[in-house]
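Task card 7
Instruction: Convert sequence to structure tokens.
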Amino acid sequence: MRLLWLEARDFRNHRSVSIEMPQGLTAVVGANGLGKTNLLEAVYYLCALASPRVSVDLPLVRSGAESAFLRGEVEAAGSRILVEVEVRVSGQNRVQVNRSAVRRKRELRRQVRAVFSGPDDLGVVQGEPGERRRFMDEAVAALWPMKEGTASAYDRALRQRNRLLKDWGGAGEPPGLEGWDAEIVTHGSALTDARARAVATMRERANKEFSTLVGGSGPRLAVEYRPNVAGVPVEEAFVAQLAGRRADELVRRTTLVGPHRDDLSLTVEDLAARGFASHGEAWGAAVALRLALAGAVAEEVREPPILLLDDPFLGLDPARRGRLAEGLGGRGQVAIAVPDAAHVPPGATVWRIEEGRIGPA
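Output:
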């Protein structure tokens, strides 16, 4: 799977960009603030119809413009896929795949896969549980695009149930609570199963990637899903836990059981990475998780996804930086953004980004 070419207009700070993407490893080199990350973000958005950095599209449109435009052609499974996107300041975005309108993101995502790693991923290792839940849901969507609505369906049901609990001022249970119980059990069980399956596909890969990065007989990275609802079958365990916490929920007026309280356990040599890993180990774990996801996607679709790494050597010592650079070969089409030519891996195609220009060095 590879991006053949990309055109971007009024996307972030890029007024107009037109490039042909080479195969293999490409390093985009330039000073901070010139748009290296924005270029990688444009590639990811073209493939996933979402930004890996922000949850809304407004920041993607260059200041003063009404829309941002992305066009590109991806080669996947022996076919060429033309993707055209208009990101609007107001109103609904427009997306076409092979000149036909697309209404649901998964219509494109099931054909084109990309994985993005950037400095924000450090939050998956060192941040709050919500960051790790978001990573698991991103992994589910990347692996099985048809399941991407599982998390949002659960979130909608959870919000409605919480609103019912919060607004109820009478004695006993609020009318309709049993109906919302059924909704969160149905969607929550599906989400729990999907997260468990996603983590299972990445667990050993993440440890292998981490061990390779740290070198020698370095520390082990253990990745374990910690569901709030545990039991088989999940639906029965969910119902039982809801019943057990019913009185507490009525007092606290919020839902106390479900995958919105899940976590992902990340440990380095049996110590929690969040509190005990060094900065280099924490960043290595974050990169290892994304590389493991890319490997899992490659196995799922039988070809590697487009891999985009923003400043992947951040915080790594020279030895680990060298091992990571060496390991980027043979992963299909990979694009990395680095601020210094000294960080360019051997054999990479080098692109320079300067004010108003992007192109081969």
